[in-house]
Amino acid sequence: MKVNYHTHTTWCDGRDTPEEMVQAALARGFAEIGFSSHARLPDVVEGNLTPERAVRYAREIRALAARYADRIRVRLGVEADYIPGDTAPDRARYAHLGLDYLIGSIHWVVAPDGAHVPVDHTPELLMAGIRDHFGGDVAQCLRAYFAQNRAMAATCDFDVIGHPDLVRKFNGRLRYFDETAPWYLDELRRTADAFAASGKVVEVNTGGISRGWMEDAYPSPAFRALLRARGVRFVLSSDAHAAEAIDCAFDRFGNAEAFARFPFTDARRPGRNVPAPPSARGAEMPPAHTLSAV
What's the CA gap between 25 and 89, in Å, rounded? Predict the structure, then answer.
């Protein structure tokens, strides 16, 4: 059954409207399509839902779900950023939208001086951020990125972990770090442990392929192997920002895993995913529940 729960439209930084995405999904034989506009509530950030637009976005997706109910299942989601001390992918923060699911992602890594360094905007911005806020230390930046991922998985209440090694996006061209280095593989192992303890689903995301930056998905084959060995479940997504990318490279990955589908519940706990107990957390960032509510 063909499904995709990670898509973007004109409500955030996508090119096509939600209805155009639904029509593309129908044309390509999808059984379910989920929308996951970017959000950093309560912040107002370009390319993300504002508090006011988030309500209208949810209303439109629900209307589409009703209109196409006899042809395809339409799900309402959000891709919410985790920036410690600022915003978090917590259900309580987005409860007023009545979401079907919530993706937690990291697009900005918090530097020691408090700066937010974008990891996937442009190679130039990433390199400048490492130079200016991490003293040129690539390993320090990437360790901070994975620590932030571990903290998000351990302390936030959401369903799907989005593109967990997004820092690889520009590595194919920049070669700014060695993906086989012992310190990097150790970060992957520690992060795989944290993801497994959280009970959350991890997406296999083909967005880097559709945008021409990569030849493989997030997470990398090595990272996927570590996650698979720990019993972590996967969901396949294209992170589509345009209708033609809605099933990008699905033919390459569609049979590679036993992919999960909505609802993303943890088999070890009834109901929806919840943060891991304190004994399993080992979080290295401030707990998300200390952040201010919307």
Answer: 26
Rounded Cα gap, residues 259 and 50, in angstroms:
32
Q: How many CB atoms sit inside 10 A of residue 140's CB?
A: 15
> What Cα–Cα distance (Å) separates residue 27 from each residue in 84, 207, 244?
40, 20, 11
Run of H or E residues at 190: helix 182-198
> 257: pLDDT confidence band, cut at 50, 70 and 90?
low
- Mean pLDDT for 78-102 is 97
Tokens found for residue 159: 């369903």
Query: Strands 101-105, 73-81: parallel, antiparallel or unpaired by DSSP?
Result: parallel
205 and 6 Cβ atoms separated by less than 8 Å: yes
Tokens 């995709």, residue located: 4
Provide the whole-model pTM: 0.89
User: Taking 70 as the threshold, does the pLDDT of residue 265 lie above it?
Assistant: no
**Phi then psi dihedrals of residue 203, to 5 deg:** -85, 145
Q: 50 — phi, psi (to 5°)?
A: -85, 165
The CATH number given to whatever domain includes residue 243 is 3.20.20.140
Q: Are strands 116-118 and 160-161 parallel, antiparallel or unpaired?
A: unpaired
Concatenated DSSP letters of 225-270: HHHHHTT--EEEE--BSSGGGTTTTHHHHTTTS----SS-B-TTSS
The pLDDT tens digits of the residues spanning 271-288 come to 344 444 333 333 444 333
Inter-residue contact 220 to 165 (CB < 8 Å): yes
Maximum C-alpha span of the chain: 56
Number of domains in the chain: 1
Nearest to 20 by CA among 246, 251, 232, 178: 246
Triad 108, 110, 114: Cα angle to 5° = 130
Residue 84: is it exposed, middle or buried by C-beta count within 10 angstroms (0-12/13-18/19+)? buried
Domain with 101, as residue range(s), is 3-290
